[in-house]
Amino acid sequence: MEKDCLFCKIANGRMNTDFLFESDNVVVFRDINPHAPVHLLIVPKRHIRSINDLTDKDDAILAEMITTGRRLAKQENVNVSGYKLLFNVEKGGGQVIFHLHLHLIGGWKK
Ligand code: 5GP
Ligand code: ZN
């Protein structure tokens, strides 16, 4: 755990956040400021600062984040209507929290 990292605290259960899914490596919870009817964050328990900090040994966690996105899209019933899986990378790319997270966004009205 990284000291003073909000998502380290959330992902490791220190903030009493409701998880929609949890495995040994990742958790999923709702974004506090949703940009769509469904807006989830898929977050590794281990601190990784951003996409730019990934190394070859992180391939498995990245794959698990994406397959978790697919699973949660189905659980939230947006898999057929469609959704976005999005990484904001660094400040210019809109990253505000510097602990890796994948946004799952969907559920817009047809
Ligand atoms: P970023 O812009 O870094 O890609 O996304 C960070 C996201 O985290 C934002 O969409 C923001 O609303 C969300 N967020 C920030 N603080 C909290 C929090 O304490 N709890 C939850 N559930 N989401 C948060
Ligand atoms: Zn962290």
Detailed description of the structure:
21% of the residues lie in helices and 21% in strands. By secondary structure, it is an alpha+beta fold. It has one domain: HIT family, subunit A (2-Layer Sandwich). The longest helix is centred in the middle third of the chain and has 17 residues, at 59-75. The termini are far apart. It binds guanosine-5'-monophosphate (5GP) and zinc ion. The site of guanosine-5'-monophosphate has 12 residues, from strand 2.
Which descriptors would you attach to this protein?
binds guanosine-5'-monophosphate, binds zinc ion, 21% strand, 5 strands, 5-stranded antiparallel β-sheet, alpha+beta, HIT family, subunit A, single chain, 110 residues
The name of the CATH architecture is: 2-Layer Sandwich
Structural class: alpha+beta
Q: Give the count of structural domains.
A: 1
CATH third-tier fold name: HIT family, subunit A
Distance between the termini: 41 Å
Cα-atom radius of gyration:
13 Å
Which CATH top level class fits?
A: Alpha Beta
**Ligands bound, unique:** guanosine-5'-monophosphate, zinc ion
Specify the CATH homologous superfamily.
HIT-like
Strand content: 15-25%
- From the spread of the alpha carbons, the general shape counts as globular
Low-confidence runs (pLDDT<50, min 5 residues)? Answer: none
Question: What order do the helices and strands follow?
Answer: HEEEHEE
SS summary, helix count: 2
Query: What is the number of strand segments?
Result: 5
Instruction: Summarize the amount of helix as a percent range.
Output: 10-25%
Largest sheet: 5 strands, antiparallel
Strand order of the largest sheet: 1-2-3-5-4
